[in-house]
Amino acid sequence: MNDVNPILLEVFKNRFVSIAEEMGATLNMTAYSPNIKERRDFSCAIFDSEGNMIAQAAHIPVHLGSMPLSVKSAIESCNFNPGDMVILNDPYKGGTHLPDVTIVAPVFAGGDVPVFFVANRAHHADIGGMSSGSMPLSRSLYQEGIIIPPLKIIEAGELDKKLMAFLLNNVRTPEEREGDFSAQVMANITGIRRIEELIKKYGVETAVRYASALMEYSEKIMRHTIKELPDGLYSFEDYMDDDGVEKEDIKIHVDLEINGERATVDFSKSDPQVDGSVNAVYAITLSAVLYVFRCLVEGDVPTNEGLIRPIKLITKKGTIVDAEFPAPVAGGNVETSQRIVDVILGALHQAVPEKIPAASQGTMNNLTIGGIDYRTGMSFAYYETIGGGMGAHSDGNGESAVHSHMTNTLNTPIEALEFTYPLMVTHYGIRRNSGGKGKYKGGDGIIREIQLLSDAEVTVLSERRRRGPYGLDGGESGKRGRNLIISDGSVAEVGGKFHAFLRAGDRVRIETPGGGGFGKITEEE
Length: 525
Known about the structure:
Layout: H1 6-30, H2 34-37, E1 42-48, E2 53-56, H3 61-64, H4 67-77, E3 85-88, E4 100-107, E5 116-123, E6 151-155, E7 158-159, H5 161-168, H6 174-202, H7 204-227, E8 232-240, E9 250-259, E10 262-266, H8 282-296, E11 311-314, H9 332-351, E12 366-372, E13 379-384, H10 414-420, E14 423-431, E15 445-452, E16 456-461, E17 482-487, E18 490-494, E19 497-502, E20 507-511
Helix pairs in contact: 1-6, 1-7, 6-7, 8-9
C-alpha cells in the first residue's frame, strides 16, 4: 500500500459506502411491501470483479456477511454482459433462507469483463411454500418456498417476462412481490450509475486499485485487533431451544483460538443438522463470525472482505451450523445466527471480559400472518421480527426494546400495519423488568399483541423460550420470552415455534426476552 494516497483512500472509502447507501435509499423509497419500505429488511453492497465485498451500507449483518457467497455463485453460474442482472435465493448457493432474494448486476468499463458488481438482498414477505409468509415449521427446503438458482432476470436491459411470470405464479402476493423485485432492480441501476461516474472521474485502474487497497487496509486493522487479544484457546457452548419438530436442545459449540494476528473459529463439535427448520448454512455462520469480529474493531473501519482474511472458520458438513441440502433453513438465518453470535461472544469473554456484553435476547421473534383480507378478498402476507433486550456490559445497562446483533431492521409502524393488513395492534410496549439483574441490568424486551380481523394462518419462529439469555460475571439471565394465543377469553401459552389457523378476533401476544445482566450486585447496591 506504499503507493496509495491516504487522502484518496478515504475519499474512495466514503464514495463506495455512499453508493451502497444510495442504493438502499432507492430500494427503500420504491419498494411496495411494508416489510421493505417500513421495516427496511434489505441490504446493499458493492463487490470487486471476483465477488469480494468492497463496501456495504449500514444494513443487516446476517445479509451482508453472507452476500459475497451469493455474488460469487452468480459469477460462477452466469456469463454476465452489460445490462444483465441475476436473481437467486438458494441457501446452498450463498443464500440465507428462501425469502431473502438477491439480485446481482455487473458494472463494465468499456471492456468485455465486469470490473465491479453491485447487489442487494431483500426479505420478501412470501416466497411460496407450505405456509403463508414462507417461514414454516418445515422438514425440507422444498416446503419453504420456491428455490431460485442463479438465473438472469434481466438480459441486455430487458426483463425476462417468462421467468418473472413463473416466480409470481408461485407466491401468495404476486403484486407485492413484483413491486419489490422492481425496487431491487432500480437499486442496482442506481449503484451502476454511481460507480460509472466514479470510474469516469478517476479512471478504472485507480478505482480498482483503491478498492483493493481498502480491503488490504481493513485486513491490516483486523490483524492488529486480533493481535491485541491474549493468545489462547477459548471454548463456549450454548443451546437452541428446539427445532420445532423435536423438543430437544441443540448444541452449538465453538473452540476459538487466538494466535498472534490470526484467529481460528471451530464449530465442528456442534450438533448434527436437525429435522426442523433451524439449520444454518455455511454462509450464515460466516456472516456471524464476521459480525462479531467487526464489533471488536474500534473506530470506523471499512466492512469488507479484508476483515475476514485473518480468520479461519472451521465447520463440519451436516451440522447445525453447516447444513447439507435439502435440510430446511428458514429459521437458521434468523434464529441460529443469533445463537452463533452468543457462543462466539461467550468464548471471547474469557479473553477480554471487559469488552464483551452479556447475551442479548438471542432471537428475532419471527411472526408471519397470512390469509384472505376481508376488506379486499385478496391474499395478504405479513411478516415481522420483534426486538428485545440487549445484554448489559462492563460499563452500563443494556438497551431496551431494540433489534440486536444479526438483525438491524425497524418495526412496522402501527399505522402502516393496520392500514395494509386486516390486523389491529391491541398492545405494544416495553416488557418491564424482563432484563437480567446485576451490577448493570440487561435491557427489557417488548410486548406486541395483534388481533386478527380476518381468519388467518399464523407461524412463529422464536427462541429463548426455555432458558433466558445468559448473564456474565455474576449477572442474572434475562427473562425468557413467551408466546400466547388469546381466544374466546382463554389464554394459552404456546411453544417458541408454532403454527396455527386462527379465527377473526383471536389475538397473538409475543413477549420477547430481556438481555442478560452483567456483574454481581453488591450489598451497597
